[in-house]
Specification:
heterodimer; A: 348 residues; alpha/beta; Rossmann fold; Alpha-Beta Plaits; 2 domains; 6-stranded mixed sheet; 4-stranded antiparallel sheet; 14 strands; 33% helix; B: 250 residues; mainly alpha; 82% helix; 0% strand
Chain lengths: 348, 250
């Protein structure tokens, strides 16, 4: 079916400068025009964004788009070829030690010493961040409790399951109570219950910290984050708040199924409806402008005995936006790959 | 901070069977050599007693023991240092140190001290052997200490070179082979150019063994000590540079 992407696709990229959610909030991370080259390959091009306190930023992108490189640059594991990173106003390249105090990082592969027990490992991580004495014990206990590691403190990390190892990785990242927590695919390898727990933890952390979260699980972003960024081929192609995203998700279409099909002109007389399209399965796809004409449509359908069987407001998903934005370069001639599917069923 | 990293490194070494088996094997071989030397001494003791300026126990037993220990350590030091940085890179645990507020020099020095801790244990066990001779005879303490200092400096140099080789690769085996090759080359480099006057003096100055020999004889020469300290410093600085280069675009 011929679903053309609405023209506001190009607006996505223009929302960059206006995406800072709340100017009064403390800016925790300020990345300016980051570039990173691997030889002649440019992995990250001109990426700029800010992270404020209370933000949970979902960082999306296909494999190899530059997500991990960006995160490694933010945590000082990679030096940017050009650009500036400030963590709480401290330049990461000029004063790496002070800046790294404010950072907690869980890389794609959690950095764990397999031959140590969980307690030993977390204590060592605390030492590395210069947490000591009583504070350290409290911090280790709190991190363990937050990540559900209370029962495995004495066990060797190498003997833990993947899910538990992942949790130890998260515990390590939040142990020293950093201002910014950067998590690279934190829920990989966890079972559904654990995923729920970790998401709840991330939401909780989001109250007092700034969080950057990369993931391939799009519902996770919708469930946890209040800001979304999509990176493709090293460039930021989308950056908006979750509320802004909601607007993009709203497509001005209704899908209806009527037993006694009226003529199209009759439908078009309804307020707001501008186009009617018959889909392959006999349903109608109505495009409207302004407020949704669903109520008027239902009333008319009842009055005129059209036999209304289905009435669904068509919504786009984050997945569609993601696919549109990341596929458009790959298939420049065929941008309509991203076919729309109605997702939320609200039968009248 | 350096000590914390060193402590973890040392603990990590002793948590693997590798460190224990190396300690055991080295101790066994050196004990055998020690006993063999004592045997030789006992054999010649009557003749030595009659000589003027005869070599003492320290010369006959301790110096050869330390000399052989150096060769044995040349073989095992790469096995201990090979994992130090390469395995961290391979297991991606280096990220933990890189994202912590710790500088590259602290990482390298911490690792280096950790490895030295292991070798200190090994040398401590080795030193017990000549010390046990005090039960029956007297030793030349000066020569003993000078030899021990020489061996410590030598092992320190082995460890620094091994650490650098370990920073170059993600494969511990490659690190081991290349540091063994480097050390062996520096060991025998004075063999080359026996006739050419100038070249050979440079080459023999570079040789690891040349400086060790004089310390074994009890000659404490600051040039020799400086040689080892410079050697260690060079490789530590190279390792720091190497770790830093991993971050930088190239």
């Amino acid at each position: 079916m011929g679903y053309t992407i609405i023209s506001d696709r190009y607006r996505f990229t223009r929302t960059l400068s206006t995406s800072i959610t709340n100017m009064t909030q403390e800016i925790l991370i300020d990345a300016e025009h980051l570039y990173r080259f691997y030889g002649p390959n440019c992995a990250v091009q001109d990426v700029s964004f800010q992270l404020a306190k209370g933000d949970v930023l979902g960082f999306l992108g296909p494999n190899g788009a530059g997500k991990s490189s960006t995160m490694q640059m933010l945590t000082g594991n990679l030096a940017p070829s050009a650009g500036k990173i400030r963590v709480r106003g401290i330049d990461l390249l000029d004063a790496p030690k002070r800046a790294k105090h404010e950072l907690g990082y869980l890389p794609e592969q959690p950095p764990l010493y397999r031959e140590h027990t969980v307690d030993e490992f977390l204590t060592y991580c605390g030492h590395l961040h210069r947490v000591a004495g009583k504070d350290l014990r409290v911090a280790v206990d709190q991190a363990k409790q937050r990540c559900g590691l209370g029962a495995v403190g004495k066990r060797l990390i190498g003997n833990l399951s993947k899910g538990y190892q992942q949790r130890v990785g998260i515990a390590q990242a939040i142990l020293h109570n950093p201002a910014v927590v950067i998590l690279d695919e934190p829920t990989v390898g966890l079972d559904p219950i654990q995923i729920r727990e970790i998401r709840a933890l991330i939401r909780e952390l989001g109250n007092e910290h700034g969080i950057i979260l990369s993931t391939h699980i799009l519902p996770e972003v919708q469930g946890v984050c209040n800001r979304v960024q999509i990176i493709n081929r090293g460039r930021l192609v989308f950056s908006d708040t979750m509320k802004g995203l909601e607007r993009h998700l709203h497509s001005q279409h209704l899908i209806v199924r009527l037993r006694n099909m009226p003529v199209a002109s009759e439908l078009q007389q309804l307020p707001g409806i501008v186009a009617v399209e018959t889909l392959d399965d006999g349903r109608l796809r109505l495009r409207y402008e302004g407020a949704s004409p669903a109520e008027a449509l239902a009333e008319t359908a009842v009055n005129k005995h059209w036999g209304l069987e289905e009435l669904i407001p068509e919504r786009r998903t984050l997945e569609q936006i993601f696919v549109e934005l990341t596929m458009q370069d790959a298939h420049p001639d065929n941008p309509t790959d991203a076919a729309a599917h109605p997702t939320e069923t609200e039968a009248a | 901070m350096i000590l914390r990293i060193a402590a973890r490194e040392l603990k990590g070494l002793f948590l693997s069977p590798m460190a224990w088996s190396i300690l055991a094997v080295v101790q066994f071989i050196l004990a055998y050599l020690f006993l063999a030397q004592i045997d030789t001494y006992m054999q010649y003791a009557p003749q030595l007693a009659g000589m003027q300026d005869a070599p003492g126990v320290t010369d006959v037993v301790v110096a050869p023991l330390f000399g052989n220990a150096a060769v044995v350590l040349l073989l095992v030091a790469p096995l201990i240092t090979m994992r130090v940085l390469s395995e961290e890179k391979r297991n991606r645990t280096l990220t933990l140190l890189m994202s912590a507020p710790v500088s590259m020099s602290e990482i390298v020095l911490g690792k280096y001290l950790g490895v030295l801790g292991f070798f200190a244990a090994l040398l401590g066990l080795l030193a017990l052997m000549p010390l046990s001779l005090f039960a029956g005879t007297s030793l030349d303490v000066g020569k003993l200490l000078s030899g021990l200092l020489g061996l410590s400096l030598l092992v320190g140099a082995f460890a620094a070179a091994g650490l650098y080789m370990s920073s170059l690769t993600e494969q511990p085996t490659i690190a081991a082979v290349s540091s063994f090759g480097l050390l062996l080359l520096l060991w025998i480099i004075n063999w080359a150019g026996g006739s050419g006057e100038q070249a050979s003096s440079v080459l023999s100055y570079l040789s690891l063994v040349q400086h060790y020999d004089s310390l074994l004889k009890g000659l404490f020469n600051s040039t020799d000590v400086a040689y080892y300290l410079l050697f260690i410093l060079t490789f530590l600085v190279l390792s720091i540079q190497r770790l830093d280069a991993n971050r930088l675009p190239h």
